[in-house]
Write a structure and sequence with these properties.
- The protein has 320 residues and is an alpha+beta fold.
- It has five helices and 19 strands.
- The strands form two sheets. The chain has an eleven-stranded mixed beta sheet.
- A hairpin with a 6-residue loop joins strand 14 and strand 15.
- The radius of gyration is 19 Å and the shape is globular.
- The structure holds fe (ii) ion.
């Protein structure tokens, strides 16, 4: 069985028309522009569906604010989907749609689902970078971008109160891998069928909240071109632009039009498999390698505060 990433996120918002403009400027493509339904499809085949928060077809809210109503994870085969149902059914209420999509609720009350996802392979241009002593792009200019067109859903970030229960659920029931832990802050996990550093990050919170959804672009030039386009369209920027140490991701966040939660461009993250050594990081040290505008407070951390985690990986709570 392999989970191959987020297949669909359904979002309930008070101002779907504004979100439509936001996502179009961000570079997402409407599946059917003539339809009233706001269904954006990424090149990998994943989808973002935006509906008015009072739309009766929405799943019930698990957040007190605008934001995701349900996250559907894609699995690689019908056999795997059935195995997943068997794994969940003894302890979790699972409902099934006529098309086979499964729905349940995770230990923090987050609505999730599963369906078969034939993820399309992504074709990317080379983004070879010349360094001083190692030029690799000979007699060729870099590709020029006028804006960004994200190719995939990289990860989802939700604050949750019970991280230990969540990690136990996602690793033991769904096969996720813990890839790094930010001490006292949160746990990074990836799906067993993906190679990105994380597809799910769960920071510790008093109650469940929506932090951000990340969309993958190919390189720093596409990320910056996308950021410039969003700036020209006057969408308020969130965090960034910068690079995390944890995951190595380049990032640029924009505030969602409801000003609750952010939408992120990501590029050039670590590609990892089961040989990856998960580490325990100091939150500040792990969060920022560099950022466009930095404050002194952001850079006040113990240098190189990162250590490999023992196996089996202790729980988030045990690590203090
Ligand atoms: Fe992110």
């Amino acid at each position: 069985m392999a989970i191959v990433g987020v297949q669909e996120i359904t979002i309930g918002v008070e101002n779907p028309g504004t979100w439509k403009s936001f996502f179009e400027d961000f570079g997402l493509t409407l599946a059917d522009p003539s339809s009233q339904q706001l269904r954006f499809v990424l090149p990998e085949g994943s989808e973002i569906i935006v509906k008015s928060s009072d739309d009766p077809t929405l799943p019930p809210a698990f957040l007190k604010t605008d934001g995701p109503r349900e996250i559907i994870w894609g699995v690689d085969s019908a056999v795997a989907l059935d195995q997943l149902k068997q794994v969940l059914q003894p302890d979790f209420a699972v409902t099934e749609d006529p098309d086979g999509t499964l729905h349940t609720v995770d230990p923090n009350g987050v609505r999730i689902g599963f369906r078969v996802f034939s993820r399309k392979s992504i074709v990317s241009d080379e983004c070879n970078e010349n360094t001083i002593g190692h030029p690799v792009r000979w007699n060729k200019q870099r590709k020029w971008y006028s804006r960004a067109y994200p190719k995939n859903i990289q990860h989802v970030v939700l604050g949750v109160p019970n991280i230990d229960a969540a990690v136990k659920f996602y690793t033991e029931r769904l096969g996720f891998r813990v890839t790094d832990i930010s001490r006292g802050f949160g746990v990074f996990m990836r799906c067993d069928g993906r190679h990105e550093h994380h597809n799910l990050f769960l920071p510790k919170a008093e109650e469940v909240y929506f932090h951000h959804i990340s969309f993958g672009v190919d390189c720093i030039d596409e990320l910056m071109a996308g950021a410039n386009y969003m700036q020209r369209k006057s969408w308020p920027q969130g965090h960034g632009i910068g690079r995390h140490r944890i995951s190595s991701f380049l990032f640029c966040y924009f505030k969602g039009p409801s000003l609750i939660g952010q939408i992120e461009y990501s590029a050039d993250g670590d590609a990892i498999d089961d040989d990856w050594v998960a580490c325990l990081w100091s939150p500040k040290f792990g969060n920022l390698h560099w950022v466009g505008n930095v404050s002194e407070a952001q850079m006040q951390y113990a240098e190189h505060d990162v250590t490999p985690l023992p196996r089996p990986i202790p729980s988030f709570s045990q690590l203090g």
